[in-house]
Amino acid sequence: MSNYHIKHLEEYFQVYRNSVRNPEEFWEEIAEEHFVWRRRWDKVLKWDFDAPEVTWFQNAQLNITENCLDRHLDTRANKTAILFEPNNLEEAAQHISYSELHLRVCKMANVLRANGIQKGDRVCIYLPMIPELAVAVLACARVGAIHSVVFAGFSSIALSTRINDCDCKMVITSDGSYRGNKTIDLKGIVDVALEDCSEVSSVLVVNRIGSTIQMKEGRDQWLQPLLDKAKSTFTAEIMDAEDPLFILYTSGSTGKPKGMVHTCAGYMVYTAYTFKNIFQYREQDVYWCTADIGWITGHSYIVYGPLANGATTVMFEGVPSYPDYGRFWDIIEKHKITQFYTAPTAIRALAKEKLEFVEKYDLSSLKVLGTVGEPINEEAWHWYNNNIGKRKSPIVDTWWQTETGGILISPIPYVTPTTPTYATLPFIGIQPALMDENGEEMRENQVEGRLCIKFPWPSMARTIWGNHDRYRDTYFSAYKGKYFTGDGALRDAVGYYRITGRVDDVIIVSGHNLGTAPIEDSINEHPAVAESAIVGFPHDVKGNALYGFVILKETGEGRDRENLKKEINQQITEQIGPIAKLDKIQFVPGLPKTRSGKIMRRILRKIAGKDTKNLGDISTLLNPEVVQDIMDKAL
Ligand code: 7RM
């Protein structure tokens, strides 16, 4: 019991040491004391990073929704589980109690079953941030279906790619969504996507905005009438510990997104345990994470982690700028938020606005602030600390990934002294390693290298859907016996970690992971484009923005450049989504390449970042002459 809630630094070090020396005993105790199981495990951990293969809580049986819902009904039936704050001010907030949520999930599970969804089937969820999204996720888990939530800002092509990759049978969506003072035609996007998805036999539609939409006979059904008729109980499907719970796509360095597969037991144990400690969660708290459930942060720290702890978790449908830039602070005051978890990009955007938007509100309920998604710069950290936390709420800078399922490096608030821009110490059970250029682990402090994790943790993704080889190649082949994160990091004199950013071809824009390859693929499809390369450059709000270097075909040379730029961005918007649009496009005669034909993005990054003093040795390039030309015309 005592290990479940770390209270001071000595205790952290002691529990950490124990968790690393006796990982099986440690996680067994956590799993035993804080969750309900249908069958106990035979073995806590089996692993082999070469295969790679990882099994936690072998042969245990459970249903995660019994842990997130049923077991709270005795003690928390009337406690608010989900506090829904709508986009529109005219609409009242909704307090959905644990018993109400349980009922809604059971009804939804019955609807899924009645529409042919069985254990192991994949269901795509493409919904805005409304309670039905959480209900749909939990209902899938209850029937044993594997949910694949696709962020409702993705385009129809991105959606159909994800639906087809894992053969979803069903899509759950809404007529539309509210976003500030706009509405978005979600069902229209789904209709276009489904022209390419022959396996989808059923579409359930939430009526959110009351718009007129097309309903395809025999395929599409409004959800509400089905729920009205559904039975209010549903016996949870019994799941094996290692059965897949969900698939969530993340971009990689080739064009195809990677469907990361998370499994039931380890994911539950780790997200619940990290939630409790990293947010120092107490029974009366009102916790708010501003992420969308379409990202891993929403899966782990809006839905599963909080609900497994019987917490009150806020779901906000809107945007930070509507009706004005005070909306976040208004919500904190209105619901007396105790933990507030957001992204550096949101902090930077709000820090640009007048401080009056903050000063109008009483933020004294706050106890813990969090950030996630990208490195937070010092200036944003101080703004957050001074103006939102009033220097009394510790900031937890939480480092983790879609692949890791839960937070791996973070302070524990009121326990770990924080330092701006540092994610500080590994969480309990996490064993980081920094690797040097020769592939050797650096064991001393005050070093910088590539960040690996050298021992399994319960919530790690087990595979990439349909492509285990890619899983091995991406994460377990760079350093033998270690999980490679793709990030660089430094470890300071006291052993604190600071994440320095991606070392591969992934760019983080506004906290969203964008692979360069899919964007380049999209640009290259434009008839006037021969070749392209994308790099990130520093942007004061988004963290990074995208800079595209584009070689035109001869046929494109005569075209109006401004029109071409518009068309290229239009194409990216359609194929990937507006998030991947380029801020700058430079037409170039060639791209710097190595002799083996690899684009030297390092050089392009320096040019885009206006840091050309030290380009390094370019004489070994295939075409050193293009570099000067690109520099002369840089934007
Ligand atoms: C949770 C999430 C993962 C990538 C990761 C990093 C970057 C995330 C931090 C961070 C510095 C942080 N999942 N990243 N958190 N960098 N400090 N606290 O964001 O799969 O979408 O992205 O995000 O590069 O590898 S993700």
Please characterize this protein's 3D structure.
The chain has 635 residues and is an alpha/beta fold. It is built from 21 helices and 31 strands. The strands form eight sheets. It has an eight-stranded mixed beta sheet with strand order 12-11-8-6-7-14-15-24, with helices on both faces. It has a seven-stranded mixed beta sheet with strand order 5-4-17-16-18-19-20, sandwiched between helices. A five-stranded antiparallel beta sheet has the order 22-21-23-25-26, with no helix packed on it. Helix 1 (9-21) packs across helix 2 (23-34), helix 5 (98-114) packs across helix 6 (131-143) and helix 7 packs across helix 8. The radius of gyration is 24 Å and the shape is globular. The model has no long low-confidence stretch (mean pLDDT 94).
